[in-house]
Design a protein that fits this description.
The complex is a heterodimer of chains A (78) and B (675). Helix content of chain A is 17%, strand content 42%. Chain A has 2 helices and 6 strands, in the order E-E-H-E-E-E-H-E. In chain A, a hairpin with a 6-residue loop joins strand 3 and strand 4. The N and C termini of chain A lie close together (10 Å). Chain B is 65% helix and 8% strand. In chain B, strand 11 and strand 12 form a beta hairpin. In chain B, helix 22 crosses helix 23. At the A-B interface, helix 1, strand 3 and strand 5 of A face helix 3, helix 11, helix 12, helix 15 and strand 10 of B.
Chain lengths: 78, 675
């Protein structure tokens, strides 16, 4: 099976992925304290009425991230 | 007496535990030496006295936010006897990251795993014994709602303090960092405990330069030596990013290991219910309407529900007034003093309490209920996109919502916004949102002049239009400000949407009462006293035939007429500075040439009075507009100053809505020229 690598904002709702890297360094800390770290599992669960931001499930909690910020997170779809 | 610090992630039920432990024995005090408000409370258990400090909730100590600094400094420098970390049993892994960071700061930590009942309901079992063995600190599993559980927490605290339990766990980093830490520890004074040395050395490797400067100054560290050691590490490729990465990875590896061994999930998708509710609340079609209905419901309950207790308070205060009158009379106090005290100070102060208190005592518990339930972050989530267009974030929706209750609370509530620029924007525009105090006036004027009859449905409809109008103006002004004087990059909107939780009634009442209702009422009364005196003096000082009120009214009249109002209305707004609720009573008082405020309960009487004083539909429209947009009340102004500590922002918050109100009134006048 092919490995599909995407930016997190392109992950479809209901799909799970492994975090490969967090690129934007100014948000890296904020992401890491919420468990958005290399190697962790992330799932896109729903979106807001205006389709941005979207909510993700990481480490058992729902976290809202704007699409432009999610674009700095590289993931591998599983 | 023991000093205890209470800390943890946000949304773990920390304040519920704080309220359960201290009950009414709590207040918000100032942390000596720092301009930081900290909640502290006291309690007794087994003949010992405890003081407990509620530290701000943060997710970690990695971001160097103000809240993180407060928590870190308090735990490391305040010599607390015990640090109680509260964690959520449902998301233990993320919480353990925080715990490990606290364990590096303090050697007397007690872990309190909260929400055990929620966890077991979702078939998640947390093995406390195993956890205790792995972390080597005292641990207690509770659910804060349960009284017995609070007792076992107290017992555990008692035991931990008696045994002087200290944690022995040390997190090891890679060998290069460990070697550097060893070198750094040597440059600290030898009297310091090895524990503290390690923590401070770790901080010296971090990139929080303010804290590093502080450490160097405080412990008189040899700066050359420090740079020499740090440069050695840099030479082998360890820049700040790499050190930081190593730090977060090691800690999260530990947290992951402990969580994997101590937690077991029996049900597969325990978040199914929350996911379902969220899919409805954030649905493209129903999401926003549902939230709007929620909001209307709260407003309706507040407006309708507060009228009965309000008139009850009026009658109590009135009866007491007669008693007070008789008492003063029997004490042979001079007549002028009795009149001055009762008709000046007493009547204005009790008037403000009677109109403000019931509305806030209804609105804020309802609001806190939604807050504790977990609905508010979803509102921010749904509306973030609109606020992003104004270069701010969805959290401003929440401060606006608080503003409907009271603008001062909305201003304080702006603390939830992390970015300073966005916080100031939210503070400056909060008074555009009509608060509880303005609703009764708006409704009265609408039903007299616009609807004409006492049709509630139509009045509510027009009120809705006014609310929407005020929201639109808020957006426009926010956008203009963020492209002019408050230019800057919009922050991110990375927000936890916490799991839904059944709120605790006691905690809601304590929180909404102490932190919101009483807090605001106290500030309002403080200003009502001088305002009452001024009002009394103005109405009793006569020059020839007319008192000062009439003289001032005619002085303001040209400008008042120019913007579609009259001098009396402007004067009423000025004298109503302490509270928007008393603008109309003062207005009626001046129109009727009375000496004290007059109740406006009779609408047809009010209508006749206003029309004989020259009101037309144009006056009513301008009045409504000016009611929405004029200077914030004195309580809000005081709060804006204490939140921003800046005369510039405080005066702008005064001028901005006033200016917009005048412009809009002029516009209305302009339109009427062509009708």
């Amino acid at each position: 099976m092919d490995v599909i690598c995407l930016e997190l904002n392109q992950l479809n709702i209901g799909k799970k992925a492994i975090i490969l890297d967090v690129l934007k360094s100014d948000l890296k800390r904020r992401f890491s304290e919420l468990g958005i770290l290399k190697g962790n599992l992330i799932e896109c669960i729903y979106e807001s009425p205006f389709r941005n931001p979207r909510a993700y499930l990481v480490n058992g909690t729902f976290i809202s991230i704007r699409n432009e910020d999610a674009a700095s997170i590289k993931v591998e779809v599983i | 007496m023991y000093k205890i610090a209470l800390c943890g992630n946000p949304n773990v039920g920390k304040s519920t535990i704080f309220n359960a432990l201290t009950g009414l024995n709590q207040h918000t005090g100032n942390w000596t030496g720092k301009t930081v408000d900290l909640k502290e409370g006291s309690f007794k258990y087994k003949d010992n006295e405890y003081i407990i400090y509620d530290l701000p909730g943060t997710y970690s100590f990695l971001c160097h936010s103000k809240e993180e600094e407060i928590t870190r400094d308090f735990i490391t420098f305040e010599n607390v006897d015990l640090t109680v970390v509260v964690v959520d049993a449902l998301s233990l892994e993320r919480n353990l990251n925080y715990v490990f960071q606290v364990l590096e700061m303090s050697d007397n930590v007690l872990l309190c795993v909260n929400l055990m009942d929620e966890a077991s309901k979702n078939k998640i079992s947390v093995n406390i014994d195993k956890l205790e063995k792995m972390l080597k600190i005292p641990i207690v599993g509770i659910s804060a709602k349960n009284k017995n559980d609070i007792n076992s927490l107290l017992n555990k605290i008692f035991d931990a303090l008696k045994d002087n339990a200290c944690n022995k766990i040390v997190i090891k980093y890679d060998k290069n960092i460990e070697k550097t830490l060893l070198d750094l520890e040597k440059i600290f004074p030898s009297s310091l405990s090895s524990y503290k040395k390690r923590f401070l050395s770790l901080r010296l490797l971090d990139d929080d330069f303010d804290f590093i400067k502080y450490i160097i100054k405080f412990y008189k560290i040899d700066i050359d030596k420090y740079f020499e050691i740090k440069n050695d590490l840099l030479d082998i490729g360890y820049d700040n990013d790499k050190i930081r990465d190593e730090y977060t990875t090691v800690i999260s590896r530990h947290a992951n290991y402990v969580a994997r061994n101590a937690v077991s999930f029996a049900k597969k998708d325990y978040l199914k219910k929350a996911k379902f509710i969220d899919k409805v609340l954030t649905n493209k079609f129903f999401g926003l309407p549902i939230m709007f209905l929620f909001f209307l419901g709260i407003l309706w309950i507040t407006i309708v529900g507060s009228s009965i207790p309000s008139s009850f308070l009026f009658s109590i205060f009135n009866n007491f007034k007669n008693i007070l009158n008789d008492l003063f009379f029997s004490l042979h106090l001079p007549n002028w003093f009795i009149d001055f005290f009762i008709n000046g100070v007493y009547s204005v102060v009790t008037w403000i309490i009677a109109v403000m208190f019931p509305a806030m005592a209804i609105f804020f518990p309802l609001f806190t209920f939604l807050e504790d339930l977990g609905v508010l972050p979803r509102i921010a989530f749904n509306l973030d996109c609109c606020f992003k267009k104004c270069q701010t974030c969805g959290k401003q929706a929440l401060t606006m919502l608080m503003g409907f209750g009271c603008n001062a609370v909305g201003v304080v509530g702006s603390r939830i916004i992390d970015s300073k620029r966005e916080r100031v924007l939210s503070i400056l525009t909060n008074s555009f949102i009509p608060c509880n105090g303005r609703f009764p006036t708006l409704i009265a004027i609408i039903s007299i002049f616009i609807v004409g009859t006492s049709s509630n449905v139509l009045s509510a409809f027009y009120l809705g239009i006014l609310i929407v109008f005020s929201i639109i103006i808020t957006f426009i002004v926010t956008r203009i400000l963020s492209f002019t004087i408050l230019k800057g990059k919009k922050s991110s909107f990375i927000l936890e949407l916490p799991n839904y939780r059944r709120p605790n009634v006691r905690s809601i009442l304590i929180h909404s009462f102490f932190d919101r209702t009483i807090f605001i009422l106290f500030r309002a009364v403080k200003i009502a006293i001088p305002a009452g005196i001024i009002l009394y003096l103005l109405s009793h000082c006569y020059f020839g035939e007319s008192n000062l009120l009439t003289i001032f009214s005619s002085f303001f009249d040209p400008f008042g007429k120019f913007i579609g109002l009259d001098g009396t209305i402007l004067l009423a707004f000025l004298l109503g500075f302490p509270a928007n609720e008393i603008v109309v009573p003062i207005l009626i008082m001046i129109y009727m040439k009375e000496n004290s405020m007059v109740d406006a309960s009779n609408l047809s009487f009010m209508k006749d009075l206003f029309i004989t004083n020259g009101w037309t539909i144009k006056t009513a429209l301008c009045f409504l507009t000016f009611m929405l947009f004029h200077f914030p009340c004195s309580t809000t102004m005081l709060t804006i100053y204490s939140e921003t500590k800046s005369i510039k922002w405080t005066s702008l918050a005064f001028i901005l809505p006033f200016f917009i109100g005048i412009i809009l009134c002029l516009f209305i006048n302009f339109v009427f020229l062509f009708l």
